[in-house]
Specification:
82 residues; elongated; 5 helices; 76% helix
Length: 82
């Protein structure tokens, strides 16, 4: 939003203000899914054909802190790689 003209920003912000909460949540959910898909693409490119469980762990390690990953999943991102 920082590189768009201010009048366009105002239109965008006004549209979000008028949007019902359920639609805002839907948009956030869709954006999160898109970000996860991009992250999975990077993981596939970096690590190749790895088991699905390992893909999920590597994806989770991008969102969760190291201590949580170790405690919950017994996965240390510093040792395994992000």
């Amino acid at each position: 939003m920082y590189d768009m003209p201010s009048h366009i920003q105002e239109i965008l912000v006004e549209g979000y203000r008028k949007m019902p909460p359920w639609e805002k949540m839907k948009r956030v959910s869709e954006l999160n899914k898109a970000i996860q898909q991009l992250a999975l693409s990077r993981i596939r490119k970096q690590y190749g054909d790895i088991p699905e469980q390992e893909k999920k762990l590597r994806l989770a390690s991008l969102w969760l802190d190291r201590e949580t990953m170790i405690r919950v999943f017994n996965w240390d991102p510093q040792k395994e790689g992000y």
